[in-house]
Amino acid sequence: MTSLAALGVATAMLAACSGGGDEDGGPNDDGTHSLDMWVFAELHATYYEQMEQRWNEENPDRPIDLEITVYPYDDMHNKLQLAVNSGEGLPDVVDIEVNKFSNFVRGSNPPLADLGAAAEPYIDDIVQARLDLYSRDGTIYGYPTHVGAMVSFYNTALLEEAGIDYTTIETWQDFEDAGVTYNEETGETFGVASTGVAFREALIVAQLGGSYFADDGTVAINSPEVVEALELEQQMLNAGAIGTIPGGSPDDEEAYGAINAGDYAAIVYPAWYTSRFVDYMPDLAGQVAIAPAPVVEDGAVATIGGGGTGTAVLEASPDAEIAAEWLAFAKLSPEANVAVWELLGFDPVNMEVWADQEVTHAEDNKFNQYFQTNLFDVLNEVQGEIGHFEAFANPDLPSVDSTLTTVTLNEIFENGVPPHEALDQAQEDLQNELGQ
Q1: Structure pTM?
Q2: Is the N or the C terminus of the chain less surrounded, counting Cβ atoms within 10 Å?
Q3: Cβ atoms 336, 52 nearer than 8 A
Q4: Which pLDDT score, from 0 to 100, does residue 24 have?
Q5: Which of 127, 81, 138, 48 is nearest to 398 (CA)?
Q6: How far is the C-alpha of 122 from the C-alpha of 107, rounded, in Å?
Q7: What is the DSSP letter of 162?
Q8: At how many degrees (to 10) do helices 199-207 and 224-239 cross?
Q9: Contact between 327 and 118 (Cβ < 8 Å)
Q10: DSSP, res 313
Q11: What's the pLDDT tens digit per position in 256-294?
Q12: Which residues 6+ apart lie within 8 Å of 404 measured at CB?
């Protein structure tokens, strides 16, 4: 998701520095409620503008005037932290990337508003694991943008040339076997060993029933499950089933070119990666099938959500109540989640949409036209087995993720360091950093 931030760098949209209207809240002279919103992706801004228009059409007695500012990723989160620390210049509503979210829900008095009441009309249809991601101690502080369920993307044209049937790949051992065969038959790389992102690591650790943290919340990056997950991946690398990719992850401009050129045949990534294929890899249209992610035999879960953006309301906003109600409509309602799929290509968090075949299987949908198989057929197949990776909710996740993606994965995949050694070093470094 963070790559979307680049889209907003050159964009200056209606900027404002403090709570959206009258300092005391309430409607403006024209009856609208001004809401100031910060986002880090231009595509998100376009989506929210649509939700503003739809809200106003359905709620003419309570219209909103949404003022959106698009900042670069780091700039926005840093600006938000400074505003929270000073108590000045806060927006009413803000997008917070999942790896940054924990920074704003630390302690007993977070600066974010309780969104539980506004979610009530929709909550029974929402994937609970994604609400849990932006909740602490039973309080909902943010609404998810998508499920981001981990799935597999297979270039069937390449696999067929190597005599591989992707539908037979169910476990990670199957994935490795297919990768070895593909490499032997073609001399090319089957899957990806990412060094700049840790989505697949989180998936395998979750399938093994593990976490990056101990029960008391302290870091445990060298736990048996994490070691086993990285050993599994290093084994696939050494066997020739996976290889590193330009840019460090599939979600990088260099990687798009390599995948589009046919340099990789299998990508295990969050479902929102559908948009990357459509937008950045046009040559593969009609060649890519979506399938469930490989699993660990007798694993704890089949898949988890990866990446994401939690949208929050600042508790100090004078219009927090209507902001929360609009945000629930914009992020959780069925009509909003239809737009999430049709505009963004993301897997919606409202499962009512998953069952609406007029939406999910629409022939004129650009995502359905691009892929050989239907994303929602895959999602419905694993619907009851989408787990919540507890580590994503730990306030120290940003430090752990940074260590993994700047040091540890490079040591394992680029330098051949045994996983237990690399993870023991990561544990020591993180304990020093976090004072544990």
Answers
A1: 0.84
A2: C
A3: no
A4: 61
A5: 81
A6: 28
A7: T
A8: 120
A9: yes
A10: E
A11: 999 999 999 999 999 999 989 999 999 999 999 999 999
A12: 198, 201, 221, 426
